[in-house]
Design a protein that fits this description.
The protein is α/β, with parallel strands linked by helices. The chain has twelve helices and nine strands.
């Protein structure tokens, strides 16, 4: 209520600020001035006014929670739940009186409840960047359906009957700009989808002007009107049939188009993931070879592309061999040197001095990195040398992989994998395998995984469906 008081005061002050300088408003302006304006100077009052408005908005945002079905409270004013105090006391009273009138005059058992929230806690859902706005609307509407029907079942709006529940729940989420009307099974015909769409369409002008009390009052009245009207006429049924058929056709075409695009995107993501997994497997295999002193680079550590042979790089030019023993594609080495990534006199991997550039390899003998002597002592030294070269190149390759596959390999993973204490398999590391693209399974309303007990105001009614929309 403290937040609501600040909001009401800020609105009153804003009204004062925008009053036109007409004769009929002079008395109002003088009255407000006597309450808020200092006798001599108006500037301090204007500063105070702006501060109050900003403070009210801040407090409203800070104190309004993101609600879930489980945390949203039961009705706190008659059959209305407004935990964020979106509605004033007068509005709550007016809406409640309208609800009582509609329920008393209904020719069939009817229970109407209202839930008003500042914001829902939306689930994390993957959104296609190419269709971001449309997908976001669908996700919010789907979340509103789950929320409204969940609240309907949790409170038990209405009573149980042979034809279904006798309750209607009107849900409004202000910050999400969405409304949803959930109905019990008894009103599947009287409050068919087309009629609920009409109610929501007529609510939208008031909701867009933040006249939430007017919109909710109108919704309650229209619910009563449609129930009193009775079964839909043949004209209404035919028109609904045509509208539904066209809607189904449009939804089918849109769904097919979207599903195919999602399938192509998923296949592409799986291909990229498999490619990253293959690169990591190559590093795992190379580490085993390095432990045996048999490691020899078979791909460029910069572009990660395989060499054509042990003498020719992936660019079909002779491999660039540095004095430290590390090898690169000639093209990649030239681009690295010219790009300014680091010291051109140092190896990008081990940072050792490369001295005068080695000429391109022209001999027909296979490259040896490093050359191992057959003497036992020299072999041990060669193995250590090979392992040292490999560890430096391994860490460099991991950094390059993170740049190429940022969705699957992160800098935190590279840091952990580069630690001398790490001895696991890169391609089987849980942090990597958990990022594998998978088809997202969405839960339906009936798979909420939770059961609710009815609120004391109602008698165990349940939701059979409904309709919603953004405003």
């Amino acid at each position: 209520m403290i937040v609501q008081s600040y909001i009401e005061l800020s609105r009153e002050l804003l009204v004062f600020d925008v009053l036109p300088y007409s004769a009929k408003n002079q008395e109002t302006r003088k009255s407000l001035s006597s309450q808020y304006e200092t006798p001599n100077k108006k500037q301090p009052f204007l500063i105070m006014k702006k501060c109050i408005v900003l403070l009210a908005l801040f407090l409203q945002k800070a104190f309004c929670a993101e609600w879930t079905v489980e945390t949203f409270p039961e009705p706190n004013y008659g059959l209305i739940s407004d935990p964020d105090t979106i509605l004033s006391e007068q509005s709550l009273q007016a809406i409640s009186e309208t609800m009582d009138s509609v329920m008393d005059n209904a020719q069939v058992p009817l229970h109407v409840a209202i839930a008003v929230a500042s914001q829902m806690k939306l689930p994390n859902i993957d959104i296609d960047d190419d269709n971001n706005n449309n997908n976001n609307n669908r996700n919010v509407e789907k979340a509103a359906e789950t929320f409204a029907r969940g609240i309907h079942d949790k409170w038990g709006v209405g009573t149980k009957s042979d034809s279904g529940g006798t309750g209607v729940l009107i849900f409004l989420s202000v910050d999400d700009r969405v409304v949803y009307i959930s109905r019990g099974g008894s009103f599947d015909t009287l409050l068919r989808n087309s009629r609920i769409d009409t109610i929501i369409r007529k609510m939208k002008p008031s909701l867009r002007q933040t006249k939430y009390d007017e919109g909710l009052t109108l919704a309650v009245q229209l619910v009563g009107d449609f129930i009193e009207k009775g079964e839909p006429t043949w004209t209404e049924k035919i028109w609904d049939y045509i509208t539904v058929e066209l809607g189904i056709l449009a939804a089918f075409v849109s769904s097919m188009f979207y599903s195919r695009r999602r399938a192509r995107r998923l296949r592409e993501e799986q291909r990229i993931y498999a490619e990253a997994a293959s690169r990591l497997s190559e590093i795992d295999r190379a580490q085993a070879e390095a432990l045996q002193g048999q490691y020899q680079a078979t791909s460029c550590p910069v572009c990660l592309e395989d060499f054509v042979s042990d003498r020719i790089g992936s660019d079909n030019q002779p491999i660039k061999l540095l004095r430290c023993g590390h090898v690169f594609d000639e093209t990649c080495w030239a681009e690295w040197v010219n790009s300014g990534h680091g010291d051109v006199s140092k190896c990008p991997i081990c940072k050792k001095d490369v001295g005068v550039e080695e000429p391109a390899v022209e001999n027909t003998e296979p490259l040896q990195q490093p050359l191992i002597d057959h003497d036992e002592h020299e072999r041990a030294r060669g193995n250590n040398r090979a392992m040292q070269l490999f560890q430096q190149e391994r860490n460099f390759r991991l950094t390059r992989l993170a740049l190429r596959y940022p969705n699957y390999i992160t800098q935190n993973q590279v840091q952990r994998w580069s630690s001398p204490a790490y001895n696991g398999s890169l391609s089987r590391d849980s942090s990597f395998t958990e990022s594998r693209p998978r088809v997202v399974q969405h839960k339906s309303h009936n798979d909420k995984g939770a059961s609710y007990t009815s609120a004391g105001h109602f008698s165990g009614g349940t939701s059979s469906g409904g309709r919603g929309g953004r405003f």
